[in-house]
């Protein structure tokens, strides 16, 4: 996801958002990788705005004290999980450094501090914070280690990028991102309680909204992301359903993925956008 989630920017309050970089362990099918002198970085093919991440504080208010473990045997729960993960990465042949870092973790040093000092992953700028991740987003070796690791234990794994020390800080039930068809949305809109409770976001530009719009939508133009992105969790409740719309459903899908990566639990992309709504549901809505 582009976004998603996937995210290795420290999180807030920057006047100018940092470029959106993904650490090397992510392996989204819709991303492509470029070589880097230390660690490949993935960039989204179509996503062009530069999203900041959320502050870490909503997830973990204090840093847990880590201890080193060679592995874990935590069983998966019945529901799919997302993990809040931080890590550091060293070169495959840097065995001396790896051993030293393991010993320092065992002695009580914080993994995030060590990541800033020693990691070769771009996430080092944020103390190795990768944000919330789910299965299918990471290279297999990293995923297996993360999803079997005991909470707060630092575990070691090896991938094609080198050696990782990773720590799962928290876990939660996996969030939902799915399309909703225009006719389904139309039925919901007829219910006054839906318009009162639902969080509806239109990411089109003001000149587009002037041509055609639907009731109840808050307009957050994508080109103005820098002004509303850092405040998204103060404007909207991540625990409530959110519906995202654009002209044809492409921009809204990218924003929906980003919202999911920022901790929104249920995100719906309006398939085909307002154009599909006008053509298939309500001809009174202008097309353009």
How many domains would you count in the coordinates? 2
Q: Structural class given helices, strands, pairing?
A: alpha/beta
Tell me the major beta sheet: 5 strands, mixed
Shape: elongated
| N- and C-termini, Cα separation | 29 Å
Instruction: Report Rg.
Output: 21 Å
Q: What's the rounded overall pLDDT mean?
A: 78
Keywords: Isomerase, Rotamase
Protein name: Peptidyl-prolyl cis-trans isomerase
InterPro entries: PPIase_dom_sf (IPR046357), PPIase_PpiC (IPR000297), PpiC/parvulin_rotamase (IPR052204), Rhodanese-like_dom (IPR001763), Rhodanese-like_dom_sf (IPR036873)
Catalytic activity: [protein]-peptidylproline (omega=180) = [protein]-peptidylproline (omega=0)
What does this structure look like?
It contains ten helices and twelve strands. It has 288 residues and is α/β, with parallel strands linked by helices. It has helices at 95-106, 111-118, 140-148, 182-189, 192-197, 206-211, 225-228, 232-235, 250-261, 273-280, and strands spanning 31-34, 41-44, 67-68, 81-90, 129-134, 153-159, 162-173, 176-180, 199-202, 218-219, 242-245, 266-270. Mean pLDDT is 78; it is low at 1-22 and 28-77.
Summarize the structure.
This protein is an alpha/beta fold and 288 residues long.
How is the topology of this model organized?
Blueprint: E1 31-34, E2 41-44, E3 67-68, E4 81-90, H1 95-106, H2 111-118, E5 129-134, H3 140-148, E6 153-159, E7 162-173, E8 176-180, H4 182-189, H5 192-197, E9 199-202, H6 206-211, E10 218-219, H7 225-228, H8 232-235, E11 242-245, H9 250-261, E12 266-270, H10 273-280
Parallel strand pairs: 3-6, 8-12, 9-10, 9-11, 11-12
Antiparallel strand pairs: 1-2, 4-5, 4-7, 6-7
Pfam families: Rhodanese, Rotamase_3
Catalytic activity: [protein]-peptidylproline (omega=180) = [protein]-peptidylproline (omega=0)
Domain PpiC: 80-170
